[in-house]
Amino acid sequence: MCSLNAEQLRQKILRLVAVGIMLTGLMVGGISIVQLYRETDRQAEILELTAPVIKGQDLSAILSTYEILFSTLFITLLILVAGMLLVTRAIRPLLDKMDHINQQRQISEQKLRHLVEYDQLTGLPNWSQLHVRLGERLNLAENDPLRQFSVLFINLNRFKAVNESLGHEAGNQVLRQVAERLKLLLPKDDLLARASGDEFLMCVQVYQGKPDIEAIAKAIIASLKQPFRINEKMVYLDSTIGISLFPDHAPDAETLLRNADAAQAHARQLGQGRYQFYEKDMSAQNLERFELETDLRGALERGEFEVYYQPQLDLDTGSISGAEALIRWNHPTRGRVPPVQFISIAEETGLIHPMGEWVLEESCRQACIWQAQGHFLKMSVNLSALQLNNGDIVNVVRDVLSRTGLESRWLELELTESYLFENFARSARVLKRLRLLGVSLALDDFGTGYSSLSYLRRLTLHRLKIDRSFVKGLPDDPGDLAIVNTIFAMAKSLSLEVVAEGVETQKQHECLVALDCKTNQGYFYAAPESAASFQQRLSQLKIANQY
């Protein structure tokens, strides 16, 4: 290695050592050489400071070693930087993909949250989300005694019949239209949710107490009473509403919702198109209803049902021409449970199907027994809308007639107006198939629904049963008298027989005789009674000879 003079050595030391110190941060004698290098008037001290480090070694060799070392380090640094750039460039697509995956994950989480918190059919919050939001509002209201809330529990009546007659897609369209109508009635900043299949919840801040909420409830009932146009068909529904107030009726969201549900159940028992505020004894009533439902589920298997029969009188002959079959429940601990208390439960739970078939078969079997004794009566059996919407009802009737051996001409099926006109085309097809079996068809509670002359003309009916609400006012109420006269005139024009049910007084009987009514039924003649009691009555009265 070539020798260096003093000046060259000094410059090389200054250059290499300074670079080394910049990279390593080496201190010589406690003083930074970089600092010395920057201070030009002290650069001469570097040689003196490096003397203890060199310790008599060949300064040229040391400097060459430093030069190689620092050159290697520099090249290594360049390679590292270049490698980092290459690696970054190589993994950029992977980083972009990971970023895209993260964005998709966030979108999926949002969609999942929406699925959990919102009803997918109507776009409204669901029960759980309303529960959370209602709880938040009630927490804020606890510190404001002037701030009150109410929950309106809205139930759609006869919605199940829409699903069964028109199909689930038609039912979904109805639900979407219901949601839109309720949105229009929802006060600003208040909450609306769908609780379940045919139930909606509205949480409203109260400003003027009950009158304020009553106005909203009446508007909801009126709006939902208007027909829904579904696939060029008109669908008619009614609603019932239960109302619970905070803090008057409940201190928290859970209790508030439960009490509104209890009030709604009570309103439904009172009839369609009603609203009801919560009262303290309603929870007890709901508990009793729940227990009744539990007992009802096993009543048929335990043999707790019994069929009672109410005679129908031929006014021309004064004899019994037929009987209406009516179910009775003999509860082991409650005693006789009135039908009004359990029929609605049976319809809601679907128990009406096995119960209805049992009543049909039992009454047909009893008619055969009486015929064997020489008493030929027409047996009238009620069919609910749910039974008629069952696509298998025609086969059920056919099978019952086959099992019991009763001729079809001795069976009359009573139908409700609400069933016939909710889906007239389907009803007409079912009635035509039933008529082909040879059974008679009667329209029950006539005058309370949507009947019109044009509809009746297209149906294959045999008899109209005048609703008892019109008979009740005879002969003193001119309105009821006019309605009954009109029904008789309509029936005559269509060649239909008329039965007046609910006859309870001598005056009503005489009025109907004067109107030339042929068949009557009611407590004035006889109350519904067991098969054994009815049979005793048959032995005491002559029977209309219809065969």
Beta-strand segment tally: 18
- Percent range for helical residues? 40-55%
Which whole number gives the mean pLDDT? 79
Gyration radius (Cα, Å) is 45 Å
How many DSSP H or I helices? 21
Strand content: 15-25%
Specify the structural class: alpha/beta
**Morphology call:** elongated
Describe the structure.
The chain has 547 residues and is an alpha/beta fold. Helices cover 55% and strands 19% of the residues. The protein has 21 helices and 18 strands. It has helices spanning 6-24, 33-38, 45-54, 59-117, 127-141, 159-166, 168-185, 210-225, 253-270, 282-299, 339-349, 352-372, 385-389, 393-404, 417-422, 424-436, 453-458, 468-471, 478-493, 506-514, 531-540; strands at 27-28, 31-32, 148-157, 191-196, 199-206, 228-230, 233-235, 238-246, 274-277, 305-314, 319-331, 335-337, 378-382, 411-416, 440-446, 463-466, 497-501, 519-521. The strands form four sheets. It has an eight-stranded mixed barrel with strand order 10-11-13-14-15-16-17-18, surrounded by four helices. Helix 7 (168-185) packs antiparallel against helix 8. The radius of gyration is 45 Å and the shape is elongated. It starts with 5 loop residues before the first helix and ends in a 7-residue tail after the last helix.
Question: Topology of this structure?
Answer:
Blueprint: H1 6-24, E1 27-28, E2 31-32, H2 33-38, H3 45-54, H4 59-117, H5 127-141, E3 148-157, H6 159-166, H7 168-185, E4 191-196, E5 199-206, H8 210-225, E6 228-230, E7 233-235, E8 238-246, H9 253-270, E9 274-277, H10 282-299, E10 305-314, E11 319-331, E12 335-337, H11 339-349, H12 352-372, E13 378-382, H13 385-389, H14 393-404, E14 411-416, H15 417-422, H16 424-436, E15 440-446, H17 453-458, E16 463-466, H18 468-471, H19 478-493, E17 497-501, H20 506-514, E18 519-521, H21 531-540
Parallel strand pairs: 8-9, 11-13, 13-14, 14-15, 15-16, 16-17, 17-18
Antiparallel strand pairs: 1-2, 3-5, 3-8, 4-5, 6-7, 10-11, 10-18, 11-12
Helix pairs in contact: 1-4, 6-7, 7-8, 9-10, 10-11, 12-14
